[in-house]
Amino acid sequence: FDATYVCYSCLLRTSVTLAPISSNRHFHISSNLLYISLSHLPQIYFLSLTMSQVVATRSIQTTLPSSGSTHDRAQKLLKPSTFASKVFQPKGNRCSKLVFRSSRISARKSAPVEVVPVSPEDDPKVEEHLQRLRGVQPFGDTSNGIWSKPTVKRKTKIVCTIGPSTDTKEMIWKLAEAGMNVARLNMSHGDHASHQKVIDLVKEYNAQSKDNVIAIMLDTKGPEVRSGDLPQPINLATGQEFTFTIQRGVGTADCVSVNYDDFVNDVAEGDMILVDGGMMSLMVKSKTETLVKCEVVDGGELKSRRHLNVRGKSATLPSITEKDWDDIKFGVDNKVDFYAVSFVKDAEVVHELKNYLKSCDADIHVIVKIESADSIPNLHSIITASDGAMVARGDLGAELPIEEVPLLQEEIINLCRSMGKAVIVATNMLESMIVHPTPTRAEVSDIAIAVREGSDGIMLSGETAHGSH
Fold this sequence. Notes:
The chain has about 475 residues and is of the alpha/beta class. It folds into 3 domains: about 5-135, no CATH class; about 155-225 and about 315-465, Phosphoenolpyruvate-binding domains (TIM Barrel), CATH 3.20.20.60; about 235-310, Beta Barrel (M1 Pyruvate Kinase, Domain 3), CATH 2.40.33. The protein has 12 helices and 24 strands. Helix 11 links the parallel strand 23 (about 420-425) and strand 24 (about 455-460). Helix 7 runs parallel beside helix 8 (about 380-385) and helix 8 (about 380-385) crosses helix 10 (about 405-420). InterPro entries: Pyr_Knase, Pyrv/PenolPyrv_kinase-like_dom, Pyrv_kinase-like_dom_sf, Pyrv_Knase-like_insert_dom_sf, Pyrv_Knase_AS, Pyrv_Knase_brl, Pyrv_Knase_insert_dom_sf. It is found in: Plastid, Chloroplast.
């Protein structure tokens, strides 16, 4: 029984699985699942197709039996359901038909269904779809009861951030061969020269690769509020007083500057300031025209240029800054494939960017990053205007209660799927692998949940940018 090409479907998301079963001689249809067992073969295989339309099956080495008794038994085993099949006639006598005939089963009427084994050369469409499916893994000697793994192409893509650990030709080649689908350039770090090097390496790989193409995503920095430079990291202890100032160039043991002039106006007494998405937290005690005085709630090590959030609030900054426009022009010049736009609050930002790209005649897709509290009320219009969305869970969990993030993730994924838009889940997917060679069970479960919810992509950040593994 040649199982190299077992079946194909016109549907995009078709799951094909084969496994040995007992030698019951029957086939039936139930709940959009087609069950076929053929007891005349050296080994018995169970074919499960999670789809509503079966096009063809193929067998080269075996002639399938047909008898009246088998037909009678099969007809009794048919379950009420709806199943539309399409039949291709085989050439010559290479394959014989199963005698089960009919292509429609309704809730009130049961009838056998004809499934005709064919060779791909019998119809050009068969050959085309078989090539797209890339076939199913040959079985060889498979033990009874063990599922065989299909080699269909992975549907959930992998986005890898390129950084100091991976910005060489050797590492980009390794990432591509390991399964990277998109190379992400984080414009919050590095300069145009370093990113140009990565773009050139990815394009070099694409030119040499025969069956794999790596897309390039440019991730804008956005209106981030960050602390200033420090001569050395500061250890902040719980209960300690610490001050932020809008004056530039301040960096002492008890005070550091911020890069946002309206920081004082945006915070209020009692607000919680989160550092790096919650790695440290400080409560606002008082403020002046230039200073915000805080008490450390959760201490830690404060380094230069750390990201600051105010719980439940978003900074009153434009979503696309002057630096972002420079980076966007850099992306147009290099013909990148995607922009990931940070801190999108409304659809107007997306329309503005798309109009600019249209004026440049640039075919670049816009992915909106959902990572601020202000974006949630406008979620529907933002995603409608975009080409896809990214669930940026780090900043989203800093501005909103962290326990709400899983529900928001599911909501965003479902909304994108209902609109036919791509959706990527990001932040802390395999965070422990920055240091450790294996992920935690929680991280594996997190990725599995994102995939099962329907995410089109999983994004790695520090794991590939500066991780050890």
